[in-house]
């Protein structure tokens, strides 16, 4: 993964003169390649539940964050998308340079008010241009069986723009844990839940609903919890 990131970032940066659609189509192949390698080298595949729940228009993806895996998988499963991420990631040699070509919304987390204004303003533009917006409500990777605090940025964007929210749950952290180079063979389950219309919902109500739906689904697909219960 590291080797191909270096090799792939160079031609990725050179795509800057081309339209976003062409840049994205080229750069996402790196995500596809890594998903393929995980299957062939590590014996790690995945199954998708709820593929029929993907709307036919650009929406906001609010996804559980456990692993590096979902950053690849979402690009393979969903249409063209942009990410809300830490500005510092764009400074990572090679990886960050290629990432910049995908026009992410790069925020400074320490400037919370300004970051939120940036998410709403730029997120609205991206959605109107037909690009899906991906956020991890918990903000950082959370170990399997645990839950972080669901931040309201994604819900605020949805309420502000009126765009659909698509909650996504998965158990990738059981197979590719945070800060681990080892991957366990098996099959990751990713569940795409029915889209939520933010109309007539407050930010608090929408955020609480997303949290409830994702965590309820996590209780169904988290095999570690199921195994412990059986024992």
Give an account of the 3D structure.
The structure is a single chain. With 231 residues, the chain is an alpha/beta fold. It has one domain (2-230): Glycerol-3-phosphate (1)-acyltransferase, CATH 3.40.1130. Helix content is 45%, strand content 16%. It contains 8 helices and 7 strands. The protein has helices at 2-13, 20-42, 69-77, 95-100, 112-128, 153-161, 203-221, 223-230, and strands at residues 44-49, 60-63, 81-86, 105-107, 132-135, 165-170, 186-192. It has a 7-stranded mixed β-sheet with strand order 1-7-6-2-5-3-4. Strand 3 (81-86), helix 4 (95-100) and strand 4 (105-107) form a beta-alpha-beta unit. Helix 1 (2-13) runs antiparallel to helix 2 and helix 2 packs across helix 3 (69-77). The longest helix is centred in the N-terminal third of the chain and has 23 residues, at 20-42. The protein is globular, with a radius of gyration of 17 Å.
Rg calculated over all Cα atoms: 17 Å
CATH architectural group: 3-Layer(aba) Sandwich
CATH hierarchy class name: Alpha Beta
Query: How are helices and strands ordered from N to C?
Result: HHEEHEHEHEHEEHH
- Count of separate structural domains: 1
> Which stretches of 5+ consecutive residues score pLDDT under 50?
225-231
Question: How does the major sheet shape up?
Answer: 7 strands, mixed
Q: Any idea of the CATH topology?
A: Glycerol-3-phosphate (1)-acyltransferase
User: Biggest sheet: strands side by side, in what order?
Assistant: 1-7-6-2-5-3-4
- Counting DSSP H or I runs of 4 or more residues, the number of helices is 8
Overall structural class, as computed from helix and strand content, comes to alpha/beta
Distance between the termini: 36 Å
Beta percentage is 15-25%
* Number of strand segments: 7
């Amino acid at each position: 993964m590291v080797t191909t990131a270096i090799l792939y970032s160079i031609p990725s940066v050179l795509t800057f003169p081309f339209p976003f659609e062409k840049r994205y189509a080229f750069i996402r192949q790196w995500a596809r390649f890594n998903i393929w390698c995980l299957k062939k080298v590590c014996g790690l595949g995945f199954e998708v539940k709820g593929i029929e729940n993907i709307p036919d228009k650009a929406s906001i993806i609010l996804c559980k964050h456990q692993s590096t895996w979902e950053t690849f998988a979402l690009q393979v499963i969903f249409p063209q998308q942009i990410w809300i991420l830490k500005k510092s990631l764009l400074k990572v040699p090679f990886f960050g340079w290629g990432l910049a070509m995908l026009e992410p919304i790069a925020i400074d987390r320490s400037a919370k008010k300004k970051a939120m204004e940036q998410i709403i303003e730029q997120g609205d533009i991206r959605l109107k241009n037909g690009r899906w917006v991906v956020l991890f409500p918990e903000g950082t990777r959370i170990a399997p069986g645990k839950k972080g605090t669901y931040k309201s940025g994604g819900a605020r964007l949805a309420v502000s723009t009126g765009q659909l929210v698509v909650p996504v749950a998965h158990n990738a952290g059981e197979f590719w844990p945070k800060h681990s180079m080892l991957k366990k063979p098996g099959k990751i389950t990713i569940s795409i839940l029915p889209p939520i219309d933010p109309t007539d919902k407050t930010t608090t109500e929408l955020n609480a609903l997303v949290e409830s739906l994702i965590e309820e689904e996590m209780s169904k697909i988290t095999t570690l919890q199921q195994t412990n219960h059986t024992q």
